[in-house]
Amino acid sequence: MMSLRWRILFSLSSRRLCRTVYSGPDGLPDFTREYEKNTDTSWEARKLKNIRQRVIDKEKGKKFEDLEKIVDDEARRIAPLSHFIFSDDPAVCNKDLMLGQRMEILGNPSSDGKNNIKEKYSKSSNLDPDFIRPEVQEILKRIRGKDPKIIFKRKLERNKEMPKIQLLSDEQLKQKYEEALEAAEKFLEMPPVMTEREPIDEELAFDEKLDGYEHSSLVFTDISEDLNRNERFIVVRETNGKLRKATWEERDRMLQIYFPKPQRDILKPELFDDLTVALKNEFHENVLQQILIHFDPDSANYINLTKQVYDDIDEKGAFELLRSTRFFGGLAFYLTKHKSIDNLLIYFLHSKLLEEASDLINLYYLIKPKSEVSQQIQDIDDAVEKVKIFVANEAINARAIKLALNPFLKSHQKRTGKQRSVQ
Amino acid sequence: MVRLSRLLRLRKSGFDTPLRVSRFRYVAHGANSLFQNAEVEVVENFDGTCHLKSGNIIRLALDGCTNRPFYRIVVSKRTDPRDCEMEQIGTFDPMPNMLNEKLCSINFERLKYHLALGAHPVKSVRRLIGLSGFLPLDPTLLIFAEGLKRRRKIEELISSQGNATEDDESSNS
């Protein structure tokens, strides 16, 4: 029997690289008379044939109907998100902890003493400079909303203690309620918005004498403890005899093999090939969680996939799906910086959230380069007038915003009319 | 006296034995004070040179199933059985994976420690360390690679001559 230690090591390199293939409609026998007639080959042999054909067809690019089912199942998966994923601290990441201990560290990011974003991420050079600004962070937290029904829908944390039963007055109940909401803010921590990381293309040595010595390339990783994930040496010796540093994809794979992050797969699920199937059924939140789990926020894959999700929400106007979740801040930031805010404004006006609308416009003028209009707007407090000025200057879909503004204009006129009459 | 002269002659002319990498870690005279570890012994050779005396060896310990080997890079004594160890330093997977890569992991901090205290790495481990770039390439590796190339050239020539003769025969017949 294999002992635990070398079972783990043995499986590190080979287990996760064996992908299970859906064998198709002939995967299981029917046990009908027709099946029993085919006695030339057993049903197991026929199943193997099906699998081999499907693998060959998949490499050529053929799409199967059954893939939709698989992708749908993957999109419905609710994955608990861990703060581990953000921290590059080797003391936190590389520990060989059992699940229970990990979950305890999960829920207390502030106990590390690092509330500042820059201290948390070792790759702080890639953070978007507009995202770091404390003014922007405050606005994004205010826009997000705090509906307790949505925040506490799922079990967020494992129970550390037995539940307590207490007798409380109404005031004390309210206090506890607010304390719970404040404690829940750690689960609404926004994932960082980063610029794309630059590709690695460095050659360390070239030995021509080793040309043809090996038929396959060798990958070396440094396993020394207490090193940052970015500082490890991962090096590839190719069949030419060329020694080069590993690319970002190879790095992610090796670090997942030797220093794994929880719930991350080495072979990425088929969800990410085609997001349209998952987004049809409005699983945006689950999809975003899985993107966070599987990819680093630096990587090109993460940025492209989140773009697709945000664009889809923008087109449909389905901002309710991400409201009072941790992903709303990223949405709003992306739209202000790279796209237009018009649809978001219309959503806020339809749902009668005027303060959030004014905050949005403040955000817009914080991020964009300064102009004469930005100074005017910061002096104004009234939301309706802010929206009017914004529509006049920089809105693309002016008509729709004016339509949404109409119900507020009448009440606004009444207020100003009354004040004038009083004067 | 005879021994001294023979050693001096061999050192100048070159040794007659086949190429052998030195097992010892040569060390300056009076280097005992540099090592804090009490287990370290400095031995004086007949020449007057000094080397570290340690029976530690870095080698590959075999694990895995039938038709599926898997090695662990391990520090142990020479007299120990193959799979026993004092410390494990890394792993090596000789079978290439889906992407035609062979995965090897080495804990370079502990490697440095053990090499400094006189552990002797075996040929296979020496080749891996050389291929990774941590230390220069092993001379045994380069000689083997050159021999491989020559053999392949000869095989290509033979096969090309064989094809040429077949073409001649077919054209003649």
Automatic annotation (TrEMBL), chain B:
<protein>
    <recommendedName>
        <fullName>Small ribosomal subunit protein bS16m</fullName>
    </recommendedName>
</protein>
<dbReference type="InterPro" id="IPR023803">
    <property type="entry name" value="Ribosomal_bS16_dom_sf"/>
</dbReference>
<dbReference type="Pfam" id="PF00886">
    <property type="entry name" value="Ribosomal_S16"/>
</dbReference>
<dbReference type="InterPro" id="IPR000307">
    <property type="entry name" value="Ribosomal_bS16"/>
</dbReference>
<keyword id="KW-0689">Ribosomal protein</keyword>
<comment type="similarity">
    <text>Belongs to the bacterial ribosomal protein bS16 family.</text>
</comment>
<keyword id="KW-0687">Ribonucleoprotein</keyword>
